[in-house]
Design brief:
Order of helices and strands: HHEHEEEHHHHHHEHHHEHHHEHEEEHH
Strand content: 5-15%
Helix content: 40-55%
Radius of gyration: 30 Å
Shape: flat
Largest sheet: 5 strands, mixed
Number of strands: 10
Structural class: alpha+beta
Strand order of the largest sheet: 3-4-2-1-7
Length: 625
C-alpha cells in the first residue's frame, strides 16, 4: 500500500509539473505568434501571392509588432531566468563542523534510497525543509558539491530541533524531509520549480532595495507579466508540491515511523516553548541592546518549565537520558551563538556584529543586565516625561510617590502616553545609540525568513501544534539536568544547560587558541525586510509598562526585592529573598491590576496596598539609569 501511495503521489507531482511547463510553453507560443504571422506575410510577398499596398502595410505593421513582442518576451524570459529567488536566512553548517550530523543525514538518505542533501543549514525557526540553491546567485564557488548547478537541495533544519530533540527523534522527523530529494531530482519537477521561483522573484523585483529608477520602471511591466503567469501556474504548482510531499511521506514510512508519531508531540511542544521564549524573554533583551547568546539552550529551560506547569512531561526524564541531537555538532556553543544573533537580526533588525550598544548576554547575567536595566530605563523615561509636563517634584528626587500622586490627581494618562511615544521616537533617532525599549534595532538592512512564523504573546498552544521544535546542548553524561530547572519565577540557577559551563556559555570542544574561533557563516540576510515578532505597543501599553517599571524599581530599592527571569513570562519581580540580587524570592505577578487601576481609574489605593504587602516605601528615591 505504501509503494502504491508513493507512486500515486509521484505521478501526480510529475503530471502537475508538466502542466506548469505547458503554461510556460503556451506563453512562449503566444509571444511567437506575431512573428509566425509576419513570416507568413513576408513569404507570401516574396512569392508574389500577397501583393498590393494593403498587404505591404500589413507586413510592416505585423513585423513591427512581432519585433516588439519578441523583444518584450526575451526581456521577460531573461529576467525570470536571472532574477534572484528569495533565500532563507540560515547559518551554514560545514561538514567539518558536524560530521556526525552529515553522517546521520546521509545514512537516512541511503535507507530511503534517495540522493543525500548537498549541504545542511540551520535557521531560527521550528520547521525543516529542502531549499534549492542552484541559482547562480546562490552558488558558493569552491564550496563543495552544493556549488554545482545540478546539486541536490540544501537541508534546512530549525535550530531549536537540535537542542530539544534526541538523535532518534530528529532522525524520525527529518525522514520525510530528506525523502523529498527523490522527487526533487525528476527533471520535470526541477524545471517547474525553477520556473515558479523565477516568476516569484520577477514579481518582487520592482520592490527590491537599491534598484535604480530606470531599472525599476522597466521591471514593472515584467513583474506584471510574471504575476499573470504566476496566477496561471499557481494551482498546478501547489498540487505538485502536495504530490511531492505525499510521495516523500509514503517513502519515509519505512524509517522510524513509530518514533515519528511520538516525535511529532515534541515538535508541537517545541513550537510553544520557542514562541514564548522569543516573545517574552528575547524581545525585552533585544530592546535593551542585548541579545541572548544561547537561545537554543534556553529553549530547553522554557520547555522544561512548560512541561512542569502543564504536566506534559510524562517520560521527560527518560528522554533526557538519550543522546541530544545537538551533540552531533562539534561546536554547539558557536552554532547556538550564530543562530541567536541571526534570530535577533531577523525578528528585531539588530546589527550583524556585536558592538558597544549591541552586546551578548548569557542567562546568568540576564536579570541584572536586562531586567533591572529595563526597569530603571523605563522609570527614568517616565520621570523625564513628567518633568516636561510640569509634574510636581519632591525634594528627595524621583520617587514612586510622585507617580502615584500625579496619576491620582491629574487625568492626563493619554497625554503622558503620547509623550512617552514621542520620547521613544527621539531616542530611536538619536545618533550613536542602541535601539531604545520598544523600537527596532538599527540593523544593517531589512531581513525576513522565507518560512517565518508569527509568535503570539497570548496563551501557549497545546503540545502537538504544527511545526516548530528544539533540543538541548550535548553533555556528558547525557541526561544531565537542563539549564533553568530552578523553580518557576526564579532567576536562572547555577546548574548549567547541557553542553554549557556554570556561566551559561557552551565550552569549545577544541583547545583554545589566541583568537576566538570564528562562527559559522550566515547567508540570506542582506536584502530582506524586518519581521517583527509583535506589533508596536500602543501608548496605553507603554504607559502601563513604565509605571510598572517604576513600581518594580521601588520594590527592589526599598523592599529587598530582586529582578528575575521566568522562562515562559520573561522579566519578573522576586520578593521575599535575602536581599537584592537573591534568586530565592517568590515571584509576585499580582502587581498588574493595581497599576491598571492607577492609570485607568486614578485609584492609587490598590497599588498602595500592594506596596505595603511587600514592604516597599514609595516615598524613598529610587536609582535610575
Amino acid at each position: 500500500m505504501g509503494a502504491m501511495g508513493e507512486e500515486r503521489g509521484a505521478q501526480a507531482a510529475r503530471a502537475r509539473a508538466r502542466a506548469v511547463l505547458r503554461v510556460r510553453g503556451r506563453a512562449w507560443a503566444v509571444a511567437l505568434l506575431p512573428a509566425a504571422v509576419a513570416v507568413v506575410l513576408l513569404a507570401g510577398g516574396a512569392a508574389g501571392r500577397l501583393a498590393g499596398p494593403a498587404w505591404d502595410a500589413a507586413r510592416w505593421a505585423v513585423s513591427g509588432a512581432a519585433a516588439v513582442v519578441l523583444l518584450g518576451a526575451a526581456a521577460v524570459g531573461a529576467v525570470v531566468a536571472r532574477a534572484r529567488p528569495a533565500l532563507t536566512p540560515t547559518v551554514e553548517i560545514a561538514e567539518s563542523s558536524a560530521p556526525d550530523l552529515y553522517g546521520m543525514v546521509r545514512d537516512l538518505a541511503a535507507r530511503l534510497t534517495v540522493p543525500a542533501p548537498s549541504a545542511i543549514a540551520l535557521t531560527p525557526d521550528c520547521d525543516s525543509w529542502l531549499e534549492d540553491r542552484t541559482h547562480r546567485a546562490h552558488r558558493l564557488p569552491g564550496r563543495g558539491p552544493h556549488a554545482a548547478p545540478d546539486a541536490a537541495p540544501v537541508l534546512v533544519i530549525g535550530s531549536p530541533f537540535l537542542w530539544w530533540m534526541r538523535v532518534g527523534e530528529l532522525r524520525a522527523v527529518l525522514a520525510p524531509v530528506v525523502a523529498g530529494t527523490g522527487p526533487s531530482a525528476h527533471p520535470d519537477i526541477a524545471a517547474a520549480r525553477r520556473f515558479v521561483r523565477g516568476l516569484d522573484a520577477a514579481v518582487a523585483l520592482p520592490g527590491r532595495p537599491g534598484l535604480g529608477a530606470v531599472r525599476r520602471l522597466g521591471a514593472r511591466p515584467v513583474a506584471a507579466v510574471a504575476r499573470t503567469l504566476l496566477r496561471a501556474v499557481g494551482e498546478h504548482a501547489a498540487e505538485m508540491e502536495r504530490g511531492v510531499a505525499a510521495a516523500a511521506s509514503e517513502r519515509a514510512r519505512a524509517v522510524d515511523y513509530g518514533l515519528r508519531i511520538v516525535a511529532q508531540e515534541q515538535v508541537g511542544l517545541a513550537y510553544a516553548g520557542w514562541d514564548r521564549l522569543l516573545t517574552r524573554v528575547a524581545l525585552p533583551a533585544w530592546r535593551m541592546g542585548r541579545w541572548p547568546s544561547r537561545l537554543d539552550a534556553g529553549v530547553v529551560s522554557a520547555l522544561t518549565e512548560l512541561s512542569r506547569r502543564d504536566r506534559l512531561a510524562e517520560g521527560f526524564a527518560s528522554r533526557l537520558g538519550e543522546r541530544p541531537a545537538c551533540d552531533l555538532l562539534e561546536e554547539p556553543g558557536l552554532v547556538d551563538e550564530a543562530t541567536s544573533l541571526l534570530a535577533a537580526r531577523i525578528f528585531h533588525g539588530g546589527p550583524a556584529e556585536p558592538g558597544p550598544g549591541w552586546a551578548p548576554v548569557d542567562w546568568q547575567r540576564y536579570p541584572e543586565e536586562v531586567v533591572d536595566r529595563k526597569w530603571r530605563t523605563e522609570a527614568a523615561r517616565l520621570h523625564r516625561v513628567l518633568d516636561r509636563l510640569g509634574a510636581r517634584t519632591g525634594p528627595q528626587g524621583p520617587t514612586l510617590t510622585r507617580v502615584l500622586e500625579h496619576f491620582s490627581t491629574a487625568e492626563d494618562g493619554e497625554r503622558v502616553a503620547a509623550a512617552l511615544v514621542a520620547e521613544l521616537s527621539r531616542e530611536e533617532r538619536a545618533p550613536g545609540r542602541a535601539a531604545p525599549d520598544g523600537a527596532p534595532g538599527s540593523g544593517t538592512g531589512p531581513l525576513v525568513p522565507t518560512a517565518a512564523f508569527e509568535p503570539a504573546a497570548g496563551p501557549l498552544p497545546p503540545a502537538g501544534t504544527p511545526p516548530h521544535g528544539s533540543a538541548p546542548h550535548g553533555s556528558a553524561p547525557y541526561g544531565s539536568a537542563p539549564y533553568g530547572s530552578a523553580p518557576s519565577g526564579s532567576a536562572p540557577s547555577s546548574a548549567a544547560a547541557p553542553g554549557t559551563d556554570s556561566s551559561g556559555t557552551a565550552p569549545s570542544r577544541t583547545p583554545p587558541s589566541g583568537a576566538a574561533p570564528a562562527g559559522p557563516p550566515v547567508r540570506g540576510v542582506d536584502d530582506l525586510p524586518l519581521l517583527p515578532l509583535q506589533p508596536p505597543r500602543s501608548g496605553r501599553e507603554l504607559l502601563a509598562d513604565h509605571v510598572l517599571a517604576a513600581v518594580c524599581c521601588a520594590a527592589v530599592d526599598t523592599a529587598g526585592a530582586a529582578p528575575g527571569l521566568d522562562w515562559l513570562d520573561g522579566p519578573v519581580l522576586l520578593v521575599g529573598g535575602d536581599g537584592a540580587g537573591d534568586a530565592g524570592g517568590r515571584r509576585r505577578a499580582d502587581v498588574g491590576p493595581p497599576v491598571l487601576a492607577l492609570i485607568e481609574d486614578a485609584d492609587p489605593e490598590p497599588l498602595r496596598d500592594w506596596l505595603t504587602s511587600v514592604g516597599a516605601r514609595p516615598e524613598k528615591p529610587v536609582r535610575l539609569v
